[in-house]
Write a structure and sequence with these properties.
This protein is an alpha+beta fold. It has 3 helices and 3 strands. It is elongated, with a radius of gyration of 20 Å.
Length: 76
C-alpha cells in the first residue's frame, strides 16, 4: 500500500492511493542554515535558537524550571 521512494537524499516521497506526500528530512527541519557555523559567545553560546545544541539546552532548562516549580508547590 505504501511505497517510499528516495530522491538523492534530499527528500522522500510517500505514494499512497495516487496521492504523493512530500516529506522533508530531519536535517532540513533544523532550519535553512542549520549546517553553518555560528560564532556565539557567553550565554548565547549555550542557549540559542540556531543550533541543535542550543535548542536542546533551552528545552532542558525549561523542563528543569517546570520541575523546580512543581517541587516547590508540592513541598509548600
Amino acid at each position: 500500500m505504501f511505497r517510499p521512494l528516495s530522491l538523492k537524499g534530499t527528500c522522500s516521497i510517500l505514494c499512497t492511493r495516487g496521492c504523493v506526500l512530500k516529506d522533508q528530512l530531519i536535517s532540513s527541519m533544523a532550519g535553512h542554515d542549520s549546517g553553518t557555523q555560528h560564532q556565539f559567545t557567553g550565554f548565547a553560546k549555550h542557549f540559542n535558537a540556531w543550533t541543535i545544541t542550543g535548542r536542546r539546552n533551552c528545552v532542558l532548562l525549561t523542563y528543569a524550571i517546570i520541575c523546580c516549580i512543581q517541587l516547590w508547590v508540592v513541598q509548600g
